[in-house]
Amino acid sequence: MRFQTKRLLIWISILVLIFSETTFASETRLSEIIVSSARFAVPLKELSQQVEVIESDEIKDYGANSIDEALRYLSTIDVMQRGPFGIQSDISIRGGSFEQTLFLINGIRVNDPQTGHFHSDIPIGINEIERIEIMPGASSAVYGHGSFGGIINIITKDKSDSIISGGVKLGDNSYQGKNIAFTLPIPVNVRFGFEGQKSDGYKINTDFDNKIFNAFLNSNHLNLITGFSEKKFGANSFYTAKYPMQWEHTKSFLLAGKGDFKIEAVKISPTFIYRHHYDYYVLIRDNPSFYNNTHKTNYLSMSVPLYIDTNYGKFITGFELSYDNIDSTRLGNNKRSHQALFGGIKKYLDKSIINLDLRLDHYDRGVDFELSPSFSALYKLTKDIKARMAINKSFRLPSYTELYYTSPVHKSNPNLKPEKVWQIESGMDFYGENFMTSFTLFQKWGSNIIDWLKMGDYWISDNINKVDTTGLTSAVIFFYKSNSIKFDYSWLNQRNNATLQSGYLNYLRHKVNLTINSQLPFDIKGTILISHLKRIYQDSYTLLDLKITKPVKYNKIKGNLFIEGKNLTDKTYYDINSVIMPGRWLFAGVEIKI
């Protein structure tokens, strides 16, 4: 059966290539992409650091059911899943730990202070995302602590092109997915959305039931977002293989806003965010009293940047305030407050663009003052070729789990120091009429890196003195009309001086992605996704996904019929030790909008 499936997929791939019109997004499309992850929002071609962008159409083509599933198809990111469909993933960039990735919503930091396991547990539906921007590399000069390995900026949709939209998807293992959204026809754009997914699971104790509710208000000067998500899932071997019947229940609430006002030549863009996260975990599902944890975290932040555009360059200055706390049966009751001042300049020269950023952070616990500088530059060798470089410093405070977690086999360490890193990168980008190619080299020098180390019968969180990382990434994309081919590759090498058993160094050594989007006869669109991964202490594996879509229309109703296949070769693999991921999983569905 497996041999027949492989042969069928080979023929499908050949047919997609034969019937496609040729391969491949014009330079006009590339020029239209505006990236807001950097200090100043600029076109993609003006960025002086490496960046990748996934747009909403690509997310649909991938058949992504969650934020972390959409990120799987980028070679710069390692998505280590414990469960599919956004149940839980550890996400790292450039060989960093999952604690070292900073998540943003519309440029506002949203990381969970308890643990990086919940950074991507964000109550934003996948259908409400306009694009996801990924900027590898340290960014503390712009965003403060946590942006150690890189940032993932989720941009929500400003408006909808329909009054009502929705969809239903059914699949193996009693999978049911549904979503609906509607926009109110009033002067400001008000939109409500709901997404739900549930399944009996692909093996014992992998069932799940996920729900997300969203509301958006967008006007000329104010954008508001609110979201609530709830997940109940069997956590088979999530944290230890000894107890496969673990179970978890999480809830997340988000309220965020951003304003845009102008006074003379000064633009003011204040932001605020409140995030609450709840986590209830039991070691044995049918015997909750044997061992359980309850954690509640709150994060509140306000930032007020001021932008000034002059003949000498673009300037920014401002301040940020934040507060977080945790109320936990296992981690205790703890809190932190924070203040920051920041400034930056962007200068346009004849063939160059120069960026300077500086930020001073103060925390009442863990670190007094931390200064984070950043310099980056771009030089246009020709109209279509640019060279770029960046050097910066970043830091990360330990999470509450790293500081205070105790169990029969873990010991807490409230004396952890902040992690620090210097990073330098250089690269080149070439923009052709129907293609783009990019190449980046980087080097990281990390100190006081936090990891769980084995000491006798216990694991204890401690600061490893040094972890140095060298890496390269490359990508080439061809476009023509609705067709595209993308090939990207990443390589990493790490060195550290840990003398005890450490979990830190199981990094992603090689990752290769091939993505093909092709317009087929009868207005059918096909997407093939192939991903090959090799972590340093695990066997390599290759995954093959496929989605075929057929547009339909009836009067004013537009929609798509589709079929999907995940892991079509039925490969047995795992991202995290002891957590076996799903084999072949097939889906079919319909989506409509009015």
3D architecture notes:
- The structure is a single chain.
- It contains 6 helices and 34 strands.
- With 594 residues, the chain is mainly beta.
- It has a 22-stranded antiparallel beta barrel. It has a 5-stranded mixed beta sheet with strand order 3-8-9-6-7. A two-stranded antiparallel ribbon has the order 1-2.
- The model is unreliable at 1-6 and 8-28 (pLDDT under 50).
Provide a count of the helices.
Answer: 6
Distance between the termini: 42 Å
Q: Roughly what is the average pLDDT, rounded to an integer?
A: 89
Structural class: mainly beta
Helix content: under 10%
Task: Indicate the low-confidence ranges by residue numbers.
Answer: 1-6, 8-28
Which percent band covers the strand fraction? Answer: over 45%
Q: Sheet bearing the most strands, described?
A: 22 strands, antiparallel, barrel
Instruction: Characterize the quaternary organization of these chains.
Output: single chain
Using only C-alpha atoms, the radius of gyration works out to 23 Å
User: Shape from CA axes?
Assistant: globular
Count the beta strands: 34
Key traits:
594 residues; mainly beta; 22-stranded antiparallel beta barrel; 34 strands; 8% helix; 58% strand; disordered N terminus
SSE topology:
Elements: H1 2-19, H2 27-32, E1 34-35, E2 42-43, E3 52-55, H3 56-62, H4 67-71, E4 77-83, E5 88-93, E6 101-105, E7 108-109, E8 129-136, H5 140-143, E9 150-156, E10 164-171, E11 175-185, E12 189-199, E13 208-218, E14 222-234, E15 247-259, E16 261-263, E17 266-268, E18 271-282, E19 292-310, E20 313-328, E21 332-348, E22 352-363, E23 369-380, E24 385-396, H6 400-404, E25 410-411, E26 419-431, E27 435-455, E28 458-480, E29 483-496, E30 508-520, E31 524-535, E32 541-554, E33 557-566, E34 585-593
Parallel strand pairs: 6-9, 25-28
Antiparallel strand pairs: 1-2, 3-8, 4-5, 6-7, 8-9, 10-11, 10-34, 11-12, 12-13, 13-14, 14-15, 15-18, 16-17, 17-19, 18-19, 19-20, 20-21, 21-22, 22-23, 23-24, 24-26, 26-27, 27-28, 28-29, 29-30, 30-31, 31-32, 32-33, 33-34
